[in-house]
Design goal:
Blueprint: H1 3-16, E1 64-70, E2 81-82, E3 88-92, E4 101-107, E5 113-118, E6 129-130, E7 136-140, E8 143-147, E9 154-159, E10 177-178, E11 184-187, E12 192-196, E13 203-208, H2 209-213, H3 233-243, H4 248-256, E14 269-271, E15 275-281, E16 287-297, E17 302-313, E18 321-322, E19 328-332, H5 337-341, E20 349-354, H6 355-359, E21 375-378, E22 389-390, E23 396-399, E24 414-418, E25 421-426, E26 432-434, E27 439-440, E28 444-451, E29 454-459, E30 462-465, E31 469-476, E32 482-488, E33 497-498, E34 504-505, E35 507-508, H7 511-515, E36 524-530
Antiparallel strand pairs: 1-36, 2-3, 3-4, 4-5, 6-7, 7-8, 8-9, 10-11, 11-12, 12-13, 14-15, 15-16, 16-17, 18-19, 19-20, 20-21, 22-23, 23-24, 24-25, 26-28, 27-28, 28-31, 29-30, 31-32, 33-34, 35-36
């Protein structure tokens, strides 16, 4: 961090605790939630909701002010979520200590820990989902568990008997969402999809995508490149300080880039039309597929059946996103070794699918079992890492982040396209690059951005960052101007979340900080609240 950036961050922290400072105020953000989700809570799971569309239905305030920074030293891969009354936020994190806490309940006013629980490192890959009764649900390894919100003690635990594929040490579910009937929907790394009863963890329905469709896992990144042995010493030390295990390096980067070799490594999306969408392996190791699954039966005895699929190019590091009415689905593809090393020549795309056309078989593919996207936009810097946002009219908002650090000044950073093609492009000022999923509110795009000058250290053609300087950004949706900027300690990876009082929470994984040769990670969860000035 430069001296200027450090002083700016120090200045904000000091001001936030001084006398006569503006008081934080509530700017209510209480959108209606359906089914088993707590009504009035704006951020209820990975990518904001069960659809994964990253849209939060409220307008945020202005003049945000830093409130607290907790969980330092712990990385947040997935976003934090909130209790039904909005007084507690829940997070899963990394921890270098083998028996250290990785599941947390944090008081939103004070930032104090109400409880924490120790679980294996895999739990950090999934967010804790909260139902309207306040109960918590999260998977890790081959298990799914439900926790009591008051104590963090387990209510139940379900074990899935699955055989690991790719580079996974264990096989099991990754992420979850609730269906309209209130069941838990999840997909395992093996491509097995489940509906699970919330009250006791009983599996009510299951379907194997590899068996039903004849698909195979993607080729893993490490089959071609052994990242672990090629990392600079400082990067290995940083990863060890966060995860406790330097061998996590290859798995971390491989999974982040969608090239870990598992059949699926993304959260399932739930459509309001009674459909599930999952992304994973395809007909061969260099192609994947977006798969539609249909929920049938009754609420007490649901069933799962196969629908159509969309062929994809290479792997994916993005979950599918579904529009509010279920009309559109989007995703990004193209994750591969070639795309990472030579992004300018790789065919990596963000694609939009018209569900109505595919259901009626009026899309561009005559096969009723195969669906063609209605439009796609090539990502210029290589494969995405995080789901693109999706508005109800099909407008897709995605960002560019490549691995030629320090080489993208003047190029587009945020992009929007819809059913009719490209809508607009935005270039960030001051050499900032987008380093988080985009959260869309009624008035802002909320993201984190980082300056990432490159160093002389490299893997093949990819240079490592020298350092990173990161900021929380509020971008006006109407003008696409950055109207507020606040320094944060590290780059993010997951979404910036919104609390019911209108506060925003950047959770920091610090992936770029970890691989930067001249900066050490701080990580943790920060809170910024609107103020009256």
């Amino acid at each position: 961090m430069s001296a200027r950036s450090f002083l700016r961050l120090w200045f904000i922290v000091v001001l936030s605790s001084g006398c006569g400072d503006p008081e934080p105020i509530d700017v209510p953000c209480r959108p209606a939630q359906d089914g088993a989700y707590p009504d009035g809570i704006p951020y209820v799971g990975v990518h904001a909701n069960a659809r994964n569309d990253d849209v939060v239905d409220c307008a945020l305030g202005r003049d945000f002010q830093f409130q607290w920074h907790v969980l330092k030293g712990h990385g947040l891969i997935q976003p934090n979520t909130f209790s039904p009354d909005g007084t507690v936020t829940y997070a899963t994190t990394t921890n270098p200590e083998p028996d250290g806490c990785r599941a947390w309940a944090i008081d939103v006013q004070t930032g104090e820990t109400r409880w924490c629980q120790s679980y294996p490192p895999a739990i950090s890959a999934s967010a804790m989902e909260v139902d309207s009764d306040g109960n918590l649900y999260v998977p890790f390894d081959q298990f799914m568990i439900s926790l009591d919100p008051a104590t963090g003690e387990e209510r139940w635990r379900t074990e899935f008997d699955l055989e690991a594929v790719g580079e996974s040490l264990t096989a099991g579910p990754l992420g979850l969402h609730f269906t309209a009937d209130g069941h838990i929907a999840t997909i395992a790394s093996t491509g097995d999809v489940y509906l699970v009863r919330r009250s006791d963890g009983e599996v009510l329905a299951e379907l194997s995508i590899p068996d039903e469709y004849g698909f195979v896992p993607p080729t893993p990144l490490s089959a071609t490149v052994d990242l672990t042995t090629m990392l600079p010493d400082s990067t290995r030390e940083d990863i060890t300080s966060v995860y406790g295990d330097p061998e996590m390096a290859g798995n971390l980067l491989g999974a982040f880039l969608g090239a870990g070799g598992e059949f699926s490594d993304n959260t399932i999306a739930v459509s309001p039309r009674g459909e599930l969408y999952a992304i994973g392996g395809g007909l061969d190791g260099t192609h994947g597929a977006l798969v539609q699954l249909k929920i049938g039966g009754t609420a007490e005895a649901p069933t799962l059946s196969k629908g159509w699929y969309v062929p994809t190019n290479g792997g994916s590091a993005t979950s599918p996103s579904v529009s509010r009415d279920g009309r559109y689905v989007n995703f990004a593809d193209g994750a591969s070794v070639a795309a990472i090393l030579n992004p300018r020549t790789a065919d990596t795309r963000v694609k939009l699918v018209d569900v109505d056309a595919c259901d009626a078989n009026t899309d561009a593919n005559d096969d009723p079992n195969v669906c063609a996207e209605v439009v796609s936009e090539r990502s210029e810097r290589g494969p995405m890492a995080g789901a693109p946002a999706l508005l109800e009219d099909g407008t897709t908002v995605f960002w560019e982040l490549g691995f030629k650090f320090g080489s993208y000044e003047g190029e587009r950073d945020l992009v929007a396209f819809g059913p009719d093609g490209l809508s607009w492009e935005l270039t960030y000022p001051d050499e900032l690059e987008n380093t988080s999923v985009v959260t869309v509110t009624d008035n802002y795009f909320v993201v984190t951005g980082s300056r990432i000058p490159s160093s002389d250290a490299r893997i093949l053609s990819v240079r490592f960052p020298a350092t990173t300087e990161s900021e929380l950004l509020f971008i006006d949706r109407a003008t696409r101007e950055i109207v507020e900027r606040h320094p944060i300690t590290d780059d993010s990876a997951a979404s910036v979340t919104i609390g019911p009082d209108g506060s925003v929470y950047p959770g920091m994984l610090g992936l770029l900080t970890m691989i930067a040769v001249d900066k050490r990670p701080t990580l943790g969860l920060m809170k910024f609240s609107p103020t009256a000035r």
